[in-house]
Each structure stands twice: as C-alpha cells, then as structure tokens.
Amino acid sequence: MKGDIGVIGLAVMGQNLILNMNDHGYKVVAHNRTAEKVDEFLQGPAKGTNIVGAYSLQELVDKLESPRKIMLMVRAGDVVDSFIDKLVPLLDKGDIIIDGGNTNFPDTNRRVAALKEKGIHFIGSGVSGGEEGARFGPSIMPGGSPEAWPFVKPIFQAISAKTENNEPCCDWVGNDGAGHFVKMVHNGIEYGDMQLITEAYQFMKDGLGMTHNEMQSVFIEWNKTELNSYLVEITSDILGYKDTDGEPLVEKILDTAGQKGTGKWTGINALDMGIPLTLITESVFARCLSSLKDQRVEAEELFGKKESIVEGDKQVWIEALRQALLASKIISYAQGFMLMREASNENGWDLNYGNVALMWRGGCIIRSAFLSNIRDAYDIDPELSFLGSDSYFKGILENSMSAWRKVAAKSMEVGIPMPSMTSALTFLDGYTTARLPANLLQAQRDYFGAHTYERVDKPKGEFFHTNWTGKGGDVSSTTYNS
User: Which of 6, 170, 298, 414 is least buried, going by the fewest C-beta atoms within 10 A?
Assistant: First the structure.
C-alpha cells in the first residue's frame, strides 16, 4: 500500500505534523536530507506507527499514490526552491507540492505560476500553533493552485484544530500566495499581541510594583474575561515559573527579542499598500529597540532615567489596564483585517474574512475567545471596512476609552514605554477624526515642491497649485496619491 502524503523535513514541526497525520489514519512517507534523521525518527517517535521512511527523493516519489502530495517543512527561501527543482523532474502532471513554511507570499505567487507551466500544482500553506499545535491540531491556511485543494482538503481538515462546534480551523484561503499572506498577517497580529502583553506586564511590575505571584494571578483572572486567549494563558504560566533558586525565571532572561521576519514583512506590505498598520509596526520596532541593549544601558545612565511609581488604588489601575489591553488588542486585529482586505482587492483573492477568523479560532498562537465575535461581525457584514465599527467591538472600544486614555497618559507621565498600546489609541483617534491636519501638510508640499492639492469646495480629482511666495511659478510638479 502506497503512502497518502510525503513530508520532507524532520525538524520539530515536520515530525509532529507527520505523527498527527498518522493518528488520523493517513500513511505518511517521511524524508530528510540526512538519512540519520530519518532513522532516528523511525526508531524514535514514529516507532510502532504506519509511518515509512524514504532515503532519497526518488524513493519518496515511488512510495506515494497518484496524484502525489509532497509537503515541504523546510526553511523558507532558497531551500524550498532547491527541493522544488529536484522534485519536478521526478513528478507527473497533476502532482502536488505543498510549502508549509513561513514563506513570503511573493515567492508563493512565483512558484504557483512557474509550476503551473510544468503541469504541477503548488500550495503555499501557513501552519500555526507551534510544536503542540502541529502535533495535536494546528491552524492551517492553504492557498495556491485551487485544483489541488480537493486532494489535500481531507488530510488538512482532519489534522487541523477544531472549534467547540467541531469546525476545522482550516479552509481554502485563495489563489496564489493568499494562504501565506494570511499567515503573515497572523504573525503580525501575534507580534502586536505579545508586545501589548509585555507592556501591561511592565506597567504592573515597574509602575504598580507588583510581585510575580500577583501578576500571575491577574493574568489568570484576565483569562476568564474577553481577554481569554492562548497568549494570556501562557503569560500566567511564565510569570509563575521559578528558577532552581526559587526566583522568577523570566527576570533572568536577557531583554533582547528576536524575530524571524514575518512581522517585518507585514509592516512592509502595509506601507506598500498604504494601510496604517501602526500597532503591529510599533511592535516590530519595539523588538528592534530591544536589540540595542548596550546602548540602552548607557542611555539610561546618561539621562538618569527612572520610572515613577503609579499612585492610586492598585485594583482600579489593574482593571483600567485590562480594558486598555482589550481595546488595543481589538485595534491590532482591526488593522490586520484592513491589510488583508486591501491585499484581497489588489490581488483578486476574494478572501472570506469570517473564514479567516474561524481558522484562527483554534490551534494557532493568536487563538482567542473574541475571534468568534470577529467571525460573527463579518457574517453580518462581509464588506466591513473597520472591525471597530461592528456593534460588539464598537461597544468595547467606547466603554474602554476612559480607562485606555488614563493608562496611556499615566505611562507617559511616569516614563513607562508603551508604544503599541499608545499607538493603538492614537490610531483610533485619527480614524474617528473627520478632518485631520493633512490640509496643512498638502499646503507645505505644494509650497516647496509644487505637488498640488485638492480643495474641499471643488470636485475630488481636480488639482490646484498656488504660487505661495509670488516668486515661484505657476507650473506644478506632480499630483499626490491619497
């Protein structure tokens, strides 16, 4: 009996996905560039299963049912291209290659088009949930060649996480790089969520002088509210974890954060598309700032920086902080969905935003209770341009506003950096302001560069230039893109 699917790459995600597929009755053929890794897997975690090994790509191909389905769980970039180049001569028309890594979506666009010319189908699929998710049920976001989806759908939906209503957290996202784009935005929101939580932690620790046990208790309680989510849950675990000497382990971890690029890509695409992804972009910059450890140590001493204690009732502040975190988190998701909407329009993907929320409801890092409310919002209005306009989320934002402003103002007063939480508030203030000072900005641009402007008392699309000094000419330069 031949295999249902082949998986290349036996790092932790690859191994766990294979074991997950085996649990659901699929025969998997496992391959790795190093034969020793295949042997270790077959004699270790895969021992006693129906998983079989392949020690060459030819053997892998020979052991699979047609149309062959081969999933790459390898490092994104050139490694993926290298495996594709080696696989194509061994495959038949109609066979399917799947990239399950964190690939930048333009690469998926390119691969779908190039393989289509050879008669090979390609799927670029985001997979989220980390080690545990891969093993017991990840969130899976496939896109690419739509002809391939019916052959892959039963496997992917079987191994994916399920909602409380047993709905699979996996569905077809769209053509070309749509799946990897949605995964990229997922990771961008993940950056934002993590940064917001760390800002709340610093406010409690440095501003309110709370112990780690006190902070752990707060996050446990918060996880019983609308903030219920995987990241809030694991934060409570982390804050309660003690090192061998009984001290909190988290305080012994160097405060320089790493990144793998997906958050940066999210910010770059937002800039390219003109979407104000302020919160997520600030979270990326916060990681960049954290890497300047030596400079920060010197600057603290140079400026004599000291945070002041936040005065007042601690419980009142904790509730205000909860509301500020919740409101900011809504803005993070709202901006992410704005970016997906623009990308969908530009690329003709016709994304189903309710389905995206469903795919994130379980298995992934950003899974949270209010993703069900996001799905409901887009079921009511599939063309919803701003998530905060939905009645449920609008109510939370309005009810949280006073507490949110109180926390933001106090953080600036006492010197606690909260870049993502404050930028979220500033974004909402800007988004809900009918007239912004960009009129002055356009006047400046026309003054020094003759870039023209539109007038409120004239039809939109009609451009004007003023000779502001009497010394310039009447010839304009270029109009602007608003």
Answer: 298
Residue entry with tokens 């949930």: 129
CA 273/CA 352 separation, integer angstroms: 19
pLDDT in tens, 14-43: 999 999 999 999 999 999 999 999 999 999
Alpha-carbon span 319 to 408, nearest angstrom: 14
The catalytic residue among 27, 63, 69, 190 is 190
Residues 6+ apart with CB under 8 A from 482: 454
183 contacts: CB under 8 Å, gap ≥ 6 = 102, 125, 126, 127, 128, 141, 262
Residue pointed to by tokens 């606690």: 416
Is position 190 annotated as part of the catalytic site?
Answer: yes
Give the residue among 61, 57, 65, 64 at the shortest CA–CA distance from 38: 57
Query: Is 311 assigned a catalytic role?
Result: no
User: Of the listed 69, 183, 329, 410, which one is catalytic?
Assistant: 183
Residue 290 near residue 165, CB atoms below 8 Å: no
What is the reported pTM?
0.92
In terms of C-beta density within 10 A (0-12 exposed, 13-18 middle, 19 or more buried), how is residue 193 classed? buried
Q: What is the pLDDT of residues 216-274, one digit of tens each?
A: 999 999 999 999 999 999 999 999 999 999 999 999 999 999 776 788 999 999 999 99
